[in-house]
Design goal:
This protein has 625 residues and is α/β, with parallel strands linked by helices. Helices cover 50% and strands 11% of the residues. The chain is built from 22 helices and 16 strands.
């Protein structure tokens, strides 16, 4: 438990005080203190004011006199504000923190208790390449999945493939009716070709050729018939685009448990079952007249009614999400069979895909007691509709959660570097208009720049080593920039600033890890077996050890608040603490071998802990930069 052991001992001591006072059931908290207020603090005195008929300050004074120090707690002090401040016995607490931090499972927190959670993210229409805006979705979803797994949840990660929507109909129309070649120009990925050429140029034609709208509607209708030639052609195209998109995701250290195809949801019978139940519960109504004549709608309260089935019988976007949400929560029998995806993703994680044809493969169990859907904030109204509908089927609170985030824009300099003319303004992206910067191009630019800088710093390094560092740092830059801000803030992505080795960037943290690795390499020593922890009494050492001990607290907070930024801040602050330690507390070449061993133990602990923290962010920790 590391720092949690300190908190637990405080709580145990306070329980004894409350037992002596014959008081129970008080929902007080003990939490890490702000600088200058001890090592931990509690609000207990405030909550006892009504029971005891005294002011918080007087109660805090009384408790501090009754409190007995223990192995990890050296003392309890009443603050004039009424808070109780606790000081650590750092010789004992350092031993606990540094010992526990060496264990493989360090930083785990039992928040979830093994309960199952489904996280759906990415879910990009399979008609184009992923752009830098999509990367925020992908990285947020992947990071949340990593955090929840470390926090004791059984996590299943899904990627919903919308292979039956309007945007797929657009590229089918482009290929089958406008004469676009089936193969891209030499050297161009198929997803880039579909998005940059086929999709954009096809949508441009609707304005000059209104008759194409009717063609698109017919394509959409034929796509919902799984046996039609149009449906088979659409499946072939979207599968090729999806394969390219997955390559980009895997490059960013993102993997999944299952691919779910919208076309299969429509053909599985899930929708008809849920639709009938919605009719029976009077959650939908049929429109006899007006602009929605012939449609099934969900009545809006303060907003417009929402069409879920069009007058031609085709389901809308939100209608397709309703049975999918029910399936994810296990509210309906699973109609799918499963096969392994034709390409293996990096690592040991098996990637499954849904199919409708029976087979003998034992697929995964994916339904969760809770579902988290990562979709940008512009979809908040639609997600709210689904949340409310799901609540009619499952009464558990927060069973379906929309984790929203704001958009990503490009700084003027970055947009210019990547070939966009924005007249000196931040660039808003639009896939339909072709105004976007692909994730692949950002990665390639970062890889080239970082590779050149690495070669300059390490002329002796071979190309494999340079490429490995360029990849690790490039991916770190992209992932870190997507999650270092609050999810409700718009991101202005800047290539040059994100690569800096100073400030709030991934390379700064990665470089700090590499600095620790160099110290250990120079020492030539394994982790010291016998350490005198009482020698670690300087402020730089204790600040760093305290930060190391906070990993479990960080994981707990991040999981409870669904906030990747909590881990980002932890990693950055821990790196800052290590660099202060590095500047003020020499490790090697000391006359005192016992002190050197103690400080080496701190360096070993930091290196392993920051690696675990970065791992939660999906960012590698290189030993050399």
């Amino acid at each position: 438990m590391a720092f949690g052991s300190f908190i637990a001992e405080i709580e145990s001591g306070l329980k004894k005080v409350l037992d002596d006072l014959d008081i129970s059931g008080v929902p007080y908290v003990v939490e890490p203190a702000r600088p200058g207020f001890g090592d931990a603090s509690s609000n207990l005195a405030f909550l006892l004011a009504k029971n005891l008929g005294k002011g918080p300050r007087d109660i805090a004074e009384m408790i501090s006199k009754r409190y007995c120090a223990g192995d990890l707690v050296s003392g309890c002090e009443a603050h004039p504000s009424g808070y109780l401040n606790f000081s650590a016995n750092w010789s004992s607490l350092s031993r606990v923190i540094l010992t526990e931090s060496m264990r493989d499972g360090y930083g785990s927190a039992d928040v979830g208790g093994g309960s199952s959670v489904v996280v759906e993210h990415t879910s990009v229409n399979p008609n184009k390449a992923l752009h830098i805006g999509h990367v925020r979705n992908i990285v947020v979803g992947d990071t949340i999945s990593r955090i929840l797994s470390r926090a004791g949840y059984k996590v299943s990660v899904l990627n919903y493939v919308d292979d039956s929507g309007l945007q797929v109909a657009d590229i089918v129309l482009g290929f089958r009716h406008l004469g676009f070649p089936a193969e891209p120009p030499d050297g161009k990925k198929f997803d880039h070709y579909c998005g940059d050429d086929v999709y954009v140029k096809t949508t441009e034609r609707y304005g000059s050729d209104p008759g194409l709208e009717d063609v698109r509607k017919e394509i959409l209708r034929e796509m919902e018939d799984g046996d039609s030639e149009t449906a088979k052609f659409a499946d072939m195209i979207t599968r090729r685009v999806l394969a390219c998109q997955l390559e980009t995701c895997w490059r960013l250290s993102v993997t999944y448990d299952c691919l779910n195809f919208e076309s299969q949801i429509l053909r599985s019978g899930l929708w008809s079952r849920i639709f009938e139940e919605m009719k029976n519960k009077k959650l939908v109504e049929f429109e006899d007249g007006g602009k929605n004549a012939g449609c099934w709608v969900i009545r809006g309260d303060a907003e417009e009614d929402k069409v879920i089935v069009r007058s031609n019988g085709t389901a809308t976007y939100v209608a397709k999400d309703i049975p999918y949400a029910a399936w994810k929560l296990g509210l309906v029998d699973d109609p799918f069979y499963y096969t392994k995806y034709e390409k293996e993703q990096p690592g040991s994680r098996v990637l499954w895909q849904t199919v409708l044809e029976p087979n003998n493969e034992k697929g995964p169990s994916l339904a969760g007691s809770r579902v988290i859907t990562v979709i940008d904030s512009r979809q908040a109204r639609l997600q709210n509709i689904i949340t409310q509908l799901v609540a009619k089927f499952k009464s558990a609170p927060d069973a379906y959660m929309h984790l929203g985030y704001e958009s990503v824009t490009l700084s003027p300099d970055t947009a210019s570097t990547l070939g966009m003319d924005t007249a000196g303004k931040s660039a808003q992206m639009s896939g339909r208009k072709g105004l976007y910067v692909s994730a692949d191009s950002v990665y390639d630019t970062l890889h080239e720049r970082i590779g050149a800088e690495t070669k300059k710093r390490h002329p002796e390094m071979d190309s494999d080593g340079i490429n490995r560092i360029a990849h690790d740092v490039g991916v770190g830059v992209m992932r870190y920039e997507m999650i270092r801000q609050d999810l409700d803030k718009i991101i202005v992505f800047d290539l040059a600033k994100s690569q800096s080795l100073e400030g709030d960037t991934a390379p700064y943290i990665q470089y700090t890890h590499a600095r620790a690795a160099r110290i250990l390499e120079k020492s030539g020593k394994a982790l010291p077996a016998n350490v005198d922890y009482s020698l670690l009494d300087g402020r730089p050492e204790l600040d760093l050890i305290r930060g190391i001990g906070m990993l479990e607290v960080c994981v707990r907070d991040a999981a409870r608040n669904m906030s990747p930024k909590v881990v980002v801040r932890y990693c950055h602050d821990l790196a800052v603490s290590f660099n202060a330690f590095y500047e003020k507390a020499h490790v090697l070449g000391l006359d005192d071998e016992n002190l050197e061993n103690a400080r080496l133990c701190v360096v070993y602990s930091f290196k392993g802990t920051i690696e675990k923290g970065l791992g939660l962010l999906g960012i590698a920790a290189p030993d050399v930069m």
